[in-house]
Amino acid sequence: MNNEQFNNRNVSENAYYLVDIEDYPTDGWGKFKRVLKRTFRGELFVGLWVVLREMIKFDIHTIQYPQEKMPIGPRYRAVHEMKRLWESGTERCIGCGLCEKICISDCIRMDTKIDENSRKEVSEYSINLGRCIFCGYCAEVCPELAITHGGRYENGSEQREHFVMYEDMLTPIDQLKAGNQLEFDGFGAITPHEDERVKKTPLAY
Amino acid sequence: MDKMINFTIDGISVEAKKGESILTVARKNDIYIPTMCYISKTTPCASCRMCVVEAKDVEGFVLSCNTPPTEGIEITTNSAELENERTNIMKLYDVNHPLECGVCDKSGECDLQNKTLEFGVSQQNFSAREQHRKIENWGLINYDPTLCIMCEKCVHVCNEVIGDDAIDVKFGGYSSTIIPKNNDTLDCTYCGECIAVCPVGALVSSNFQYSANAWELTRVPATCAHCSGGCSLEYETRHLGINGGDSILRVKNNFEYTSLCGAGRFGFDFSNNVLNKDEAAFRKAVEAVKNAKAIRFSSMITNEEAHILELLKDKLDIKLFNEDARKFKEFMSAYSSVSAKKHHSGSLDAVKQCDAAVVIGSRIATDNPALRYALTTASKHNGAKILYAHPVEDALMQNTVTQFIKYEVGTEEGVIALFANAILKDLDLSEDERAFFDELDLGYLEAETNVGDDELALMIKSFNRAAKRVLIVGNDLISHERSSNIAKLAAMIEKYTDFSIIIVPNEVNTLGVSLICNLDKDEEISNVVGYNAKGDFVISSLAGADLAVPALNQQEGTFVSIDNKVLPTNVALSFKGYTLNDIAAAHGIVKETTVDYTKELNTEAGFKNIDFDSLENFLSAHGDDVRGYLLDEVECESNGKLESVSELPEFNGTVIYHSNPVLQFNAYTNITKQLEKDTSLRGSAQFAAAAKISDGDEVEISFGKRSINRKFKLDSELKGTIALNPTFDDVSDASRYKFEKSKIVRVIHE
User: How far apart are the first and last CA of chain B?
Assistant: First the structure.
């Protein structure tokens, strides 16, 4: 991959240009002329006309937030989601602790233990959203694609310290079964056509 | 002086002592040779073959770990061929190694991970059919054979250093595994040393497994607070749970050079958790100390606390009771009166290097595991002769001990007199001393102690050839009624021979307390404040105290270990309540912190005026112990006179030996979560028959006025007519002579 376009950090060489703006008046006479111009040009009526025109067209695009919401891009970084495995429905998180380690605002904390099958089990997991800066490092470092950011961007609350429990973030099992768990391509994700690329172990047994 | 062997490694001229391998010399000179299975404290396993080097004019590769250099040889540690060889070895190690670094406990401190990255193993050209291997649960230890790389470090350590010899390699090529030796499940003393040395996550602590990653833990260097061995360890702490405070998750040690027993490794959760400062209790405590006639305390305190108690004694004119340290002090002063030195001469290192050792009057494997490991090391590495003299045989020592002398209970004075007589026979003693030995009625002593002529002759025969000899004096001699004469006899051996002598202190800081405090004989008086001991007002770090004070893993301070070293320990967990220093401050003995007293410790006893903060607490990369400092040697007046051996007492009837089971020492080990708490009375079939009890019976044991109820457990490893009674759950008097006549009655529940 060619990284040259990213490595060239001299921004002035590229597509920057000066905006053509009239110079501001500096003397009294000039300023007086500007006032007169702005007062008697009737710009207000231009605006009012636009509103009136759109009103009588009856084609209104206003979104009635919070009753209505805009669809949000899948790469938007809002409140985290914990994913499940498609095949078994079990949680993907293996409790490696990398998200906890990489978190630069120190808002992730987890507790793990050994379960009855001698496997590592995440017994507690929480993200302090009051501290989270939604940088996305946790999602990026996760080796299992278990934690991602979701689209739930509203987290107004009376409390500054707003914890999110693991259960709230985990894909509900019925949503998984309905095939509604959002998956991501790109870095860390399963490469498309992965099955075709699998090779045999070099030596035969 | 041994002749040095001169040779070169990578063009650098180095010299080796006899017996050193190329690898040890390279390491000493900071030349890097990668290894996977090498561990400094054992003989080379030679299983990894990573340490290969090239020698000029020698065909093929040479294993540097077990090859001694020859004069003038030229060694190369790095070449393209060597690199290729090592990379291939790493590739083989990685065959089918589960890619579970994400969850593995060892991730971040894993030798295999490090070396795989170091050699850049990015692809695999070897393969083998994967096989199903079951994860084993061995109590405190879990074993995952799929992660095991068969370096055999655990087996070597268990056999050569610990002496349990409990695990073995099951050979079978690719399906080799580690298995419990001669058993279905692991039957050992659970020192956990195998966990420590395991370079991968195959052997792990079952309590710790999957609870934290290596990089999350804060390491606090400290000194073990359970026995006088003074082992170095690191408490590793981290928050527990989402909102939890700090707690100790595990203990690690510098396994390359030192060892740690299970009590140190698994018995770390004895801290005293106090939520806030209890002002009312504090005021009562200050008042109680002010009005007290005496303070009774245990030796499980730091030197600084002992010093504060001594200052309180002077200021308030009260008495200090600590029978354990007082008896030790008396023993040592009698000892010094003959040897003319305040401290004993031996150390654990001396034991490790010795080629002959006598252990007398101690069940050493449970009293002081550090000494047991040192004896095992000496026995396995130097072929040392170990003589173990005690009325009760110890199955744990049977792999180590070469000669067992069984003497009668209570006749310790006679035994040491016989030993001294045999050892000092042909030496040039002063007139008085020679007269003492001439007067000895050897026939009477041998008959009463049950130590035969031939046994003594065998001892002398095997000891005469030894160059480095050690005498280890246990607690039965210190707590003995005739301890001062016993001490003088032991000191005679020190004075006239090259024996180094170790007197084993009973508790973690018995030695320190005996050097710092002026102790009074304990009396049954009222108005006694107990400091970690019983009293009318109890200030203690154990549950049920009138005022809570920090436990030894919540304090900074120093201990004096069996090596006569002043060792620092640090705060692993914070303590929110009051300390002894606060009580002293309320009485006008004001210092900001307890460790401000470290530099004021008694210099007449050998302490140095060194600030606590300038004491180091680590082992260097070459294994040099730079923890704390060694006590200065103090010259004493040599005016002790040997008294003639008194009539030896007889212990007939049912005799109980107060001895703790493995890994249990005191009330603190008793409250830990992981250590086994077997409070049963253990005895042989012979004992059961004599006392008319059988396995599983509940019995009442009475000694004089006191009595205690125990469950009787038949122990097939015990012999003879003495039963072992644990004391860790019933700490009435740690200083008593451990053999006691008793009456045993079976309790019948109606």
Answer: 75
